[in-house]
Write a structure and sequence with these properties.
- This protein has an 8-stranded antiparallel β-sheet with strand order 1-2-3-4-5-6-7-8, covered by helices on one side.
- With about 425 residues, the chain is of the alpha/beta class.
- It is built from 8 helices and 18 strands.
- It has 2 domains: about 5-155; about 165-415, Rossmann fold.
- The longest helix has 18 residues, at about 15-35.
- The protein is about 20% helix and about 25% strand.
- The protein starts with 5 loop residues before the first helix and ends in a 7-residue tail after the last strand.
């Protein structure tokens, strides 16, 4: 196992003294607060002199709390978030996360995880270097020794535009440094990639949904893109990291994709809030671009329980869900006789993950790139198709499935999206 001292690797970002001070602070929080069997916010505040309780949440609201979340303000030292998982009253996991103040923002710095005996087991640190690289370091139980590192952000690789049909992928971002992806990035005349990060509002949309936990990002976009680029060998991709902090930016996402020359907008994402998608719907209606979106994976009829943007009435959008190879709706995939247009096989699809490793993935998210790839191949044969004509051509390929009940899909099943 590869191990080095963390503070040596952090020379670019901060001093060893600062790193060790952060480690000592997090360690003190574990030592002082974790042993509290009936932890309350005020108890935790009292154990850390100078701390101020900002928030306390206990779930479920009645009876023995299975999860307790605390937020403590430490002044100049930053903010601590504490999570105590105690199903049935017995401690299973205790997590402390330190956020440093950077102007008006809080930046994640260090996280430590302890077991039911309050013994540290592992840590994670976010490290920013002077050259623009950002790393997520996986640490040993001393919170200093490095196990391995993952990329969170990096500069664009050099290259030139590969040509081909442009597809804008709106997702968690893209590991754009990987072989097979770096040479498929849509670029301007100077060779600069056309992607953008609408989450952090910077030019580097590297793969990572940090909404649930900044120290454990969900990597989704790279796997989705790998399907698209394999099934549409001449397509080029415009990676756009979706704006979870402010979904009103979705209008800007659509405009950016259109200005960059995208013919197709691939979107394997959604939410239950109609307000999240108002700007998206208004912007898409103004552009000749076909949006292909996922139906979701809640195992529900989204006609009855709306999911957006899938249930929006837009004539330049298609909604797709996942089936097995025989034409049966995949377990967990959503359906809707009015809202879900097409079903196609998207279970155990071969993908490349953000590390470049081979894997398989399933669900309506992976139906999106399969249908988008088919759309690319149709456009290659007839580049003059507008978005609505392209939509009609795709719908014409859908047929009733012999293994699925009627009324679950608006159009039908495409048994093999590679058969075109």
């Amino acid at each position: 196992m590869f191990r080095v001292a963390l503070f040596t690797a952090l020379t670019f970002a901060c001093s060893p003294a600062t790193v060790m001070a952060d480690v000592a602070l997090v360690q003190r929080a574990v030592d002082q607060i974790c042993p509290l069997e009936d932890m309350t916010g005020l108890d935790a505040q009292a154990r850390l002199p100078g701390a101020w309780l900002l928030n306390e949440t206990r779930r479920p609201a009645t009876g023995m709390a299975n999860v307790i979340d605390l937020t403590l303000d430490l002044g100049a030292e930053g903010v601590l978030e504490i999570n105590r998982l105690q199903p049935g009253g017995g401690l299973r996991r205790f997590t402390v996360s330190l956020f440093a103040r950077q102007g008006e923002k809080l930046a994640p710095v260090l996280q430590a995880a302890a077991d039911g005996s309050c013994r540290l087991r592992a840590g994670r640190a976010i490290r920013t270097e002077a050259d623009g690289w950002v790393w997520l370091d996986q640490l040993e139980d001393d919170l200093v020794t490095l196990r391995w590192s993952e990329i969170l952000q990096m500069p664009w690789p050099e290259g030139r535009d590969p040509g081909g049909i442009r597809v804008a992928l709106v997702d968690s971002g893209l590991a754009y440094n990987l072989p097979g992806i770096a040479d498929r990035l849509a670029r301007d005349a100077t060779g600069h990639p056309l992607g953008y990060d609408f989450w952090d509002m910077d030019p580097w949309p590297y793969d990572g949904d940090t909404g649930r936990n900044p120290f454990a990002p969900i990597r989704h976009g790279t796997a989705v893109a790998s399907v698209l680029l394999r099934e549409a060998p001449s397509a080029q991709v415009i990676p756009l990291r979706y704006p979870r902090p402010d979904m009103s930016r979705m209008g800007d996402v659509v405009a950016h994709a259109a200005d960059a020359g995208a013919r197709i907008l691939a979107m394997p994402l959604g939410s239950r809030s109609a307000a999240d998608w108002t700007a998206f719907a208004e912007a898409l209606a103004r552009h000749d671009m076909l949006a292909i979106v996922s139906a979701g994976n809640n195992g529900q009829d989204i006609d009855a329980t709306p999911l957006y943007p899938a249930t929006l009435p837009l004539d330049n959008m298609l909604v797709v869900t996942s089936s097995d190879g025989f034409g049966k709706l995949a377990e967990g995939s959503n359906w809707g006789g009015q809202s879900v247009d097409i079903m196609l096989p998207a279970e155990r699809v071969p993908v490349t993950d953000f590390r470049g490793a081979a894997a398989t993935a399933s669900g309506s998210s992976y139906a999106v790139p399969r249908l988008a790839a088919l759309a690319v191949r149709l456009l290659e044969r007839d580049p003059n198709l507008d978005a609505r004509s392209l939509r009609a051509a795709l719908l014409a390929r859908a047929k009733p499935s012999p293994f699925e009940e009627e009324g679950r899909l608006a159009a039908g099943w495409i048994a093999d999206p590679l058969d075109d």
